[in-house]
Design brief:
Rossmann fold; alpha/beta; globular; 5 strands
Length: 290
């Protein structure tokens, strides 16, 4: 079975992938047959591409009832990977589900036809206008509250159509803060955006430590920093590295493998460093905890 996530919006793509993964892991808790492929999967070697032995993907799963293969940002992969994946898609067993997110259009004709014929297609195009209003309303209800007309207008004016930024605002509203409180706290509403835009990573670290001391929900902090990176960073390699880190931290928080203090400390430790200085994780954690 092939599921195609089509579009460039990374927030919608991540949400779709997370839902598919959660459903799969309910039936296969160990995740032994969950394979995730992106540009940073592994170092290349003679018999594989992106650290993936493509032939292995064609075998019947041994440790679970089915296998889930997730391919992220396919449009950024080299043509050789497109050709290899096209061959795999034509031969995977029925017990294997392949999820492909393109992130940008795929130019390989054969693969493009296979994706167009997918069993299920999920849109990941950033909503605008009335579609954005519907998304905001639906997302607020998922978080357990109703948006007023004023709140809806304010969110659209403030966040435009940047879903990572809007998600952070919705999460803040869902904590039960009144609109007045939110506006008061938002005298500098997107502090991370300003700091990341200026590449002021030392100030970002101080802001993270400050938010930890103030007890701000760490999920909101992670989401806000991720939104700032996606909107303000121009270095694609740095963007992929940081957003990948934040996604891992977010997953760790949701699964309980990371506590809030550790999550903040990891963010601080892995942010870009001035010169070649290395942050000592132990010292960072101690500074936050004190």
């Amino acid at each position: 079975m092939l599921i195609f996530i089509e579009g460039s919006d990374s927030f919608l793509a991540r949400e779709a992938i997370n839902k598919i993964k959660a459903k799969y892991l309910e039936k296969n808790p160990g995740g032994a047959e969950l394979i995730e492929i992106d540009e940073t999967t592994s170092e290349p070697n003679p018999s594989t591409s992106l650290g993936v032995n493509w032939a292995d993907l064609l075998t019947v799963p041994l440790f679970a009832t089915s296998r889930l293969i997730i391919v992220r940002r396919l449009g950024y992969f080299p043509p050789t990977v497109h050709q290899q994946l096209s061959l795999v898609l034509g031969q995977v067993p029925e017990s294997t589900v392949v999820v492909v997110w393109d992130a940008r259009p795929v130019k390989d004709t054969a693969l493009e036809k296979q994706l167009a014929a997918a069993s299920k297609t999920i849109g990941a195009t950033t909503p605008q206008g009335a579609a954005l209003s519907r998304w905001l309303t639906a997302r607020a209800r998922e978080l357990g509250f109703e948006l007023s007309r004023d709140q809806l207008q304010e969110l659209q004016q403030r966040g435009h159509n940047e879903l990572w930024e809007l998600e952070t605002e919705l999460q803040t509203l869902s904590t039960g803060l009144s609109s007045a409180t939110v506006r008061e706290a938002a005298s500098e509403p997107f502090v991370f955006f300003n700091l990341v835009r200026r590449n002021n990573w030392e100030a970002v670290k101080k802001e993270l430590a400050k938010k930890a001391r103030q007890g701000e929900p760490v999920e909101l902090v992670v989401g806000s920093l991720a939104a700032a990176c996606r909107k303000e960073l121009r270095d694609e390699d740095q963007l992929r590295e940081l957003v990948g880190l934040l996604i891992d931290i977010d997953l760790g928080l949701k699964t309980g493998s990371l506590d809030p203090d550790s999550a903040i400390a990891l963010m601080i430790a892995h942010l870009p460093q001035p010169l070649s200085n290395r942050v000592q994780w132990e010292n960072t954690w101690g500074e936050i905890a004190s």
